[in-house]
Amino acid sequence: MDYKLYEKYGPIISDDESELIFNELNHLVSEGKAVNIKFDGVIAMTTRSAKRIFGTLHSNLKSEKFYNLIRIENASNTLQEIIYDSIINYISNTEIKG
Is the pTM of this model over 0.85? Predict the structure, then answer.
């Protein structure tokens, strides 16, 4: 299933929108649906938003299921780094607290 961020939220993903995005994606993957998250037109996302969306999804699904169900398409190199860093940061913070 294609999930077009720009069409729903515009070029900048805010912290408030990240909660909505997480809830929508979490619902889809909880039904076992693979999701192609299309970043066409998205130019910015905060680390906090990425951590809420991708860090939490990665933690909930675990690595193998996350990478089987979540596809990130057409994200700029900067957005890819933010997403990657947010997952690593989420994992690191969870391990420290655990």
Answer: yes
